[in-house]
Design goal:
Layout: H1 4-17, H2 25-34, H3 39-65, H4 72-90, H5 98-103, H6 105-109
């Protein structure tokens, strides 16, 4: 959360999900999972959190070890796509299209 690149990503993810950004990552996980209306939404928010951690970690490694410039918008897009793939593959419910997930993931989670 103290890295500008990661902070910008978390701000964008929280805006996308409609939650308030807490002061640290562990509180963010609790906030996301705790604000879920049911078990499916909680699991969906947990998947988004894991995708964000994965993408931030990989992006920062590229920035540090491969001298690749990180682009916040690209990272957020990757988080959205990756979390959608993980959600669709882990849930027994009907499929949710990517554009629906990006538009409003909460609706996909409660189907």
């Amino acid at each position: 959360m103290h890295c500008d690149f990661a902070a910008q990503i978390w701000y964008a993810i929280c805006r996308w999900l409609g939650v308030v950004l807490p002061p640290d990552v562990m509180n963010l996980y609790g906030t996301l999972v705790g604000c879920g209306r049911n078990k499916c939404v909680k699991k969906g928010f947990s998947i988004v959190w894991r995708a964000a951690i994965w993408v931030i970690w990989r992006s920062r490694n590229d920035m540090i070890f491969n001298n690749v410039a990180g682009v916040v918008e690209d990272a957020v897009g990757l988080i959205q796509r990756l979390s959608w793939q993980w959600f669709v593959n882990n849930m027994a419910k009907g499929p949710c299209l990517l554009y629906e997930w990006i538009w409003n993931p909460g609706d996909c989670m409660i189907r």
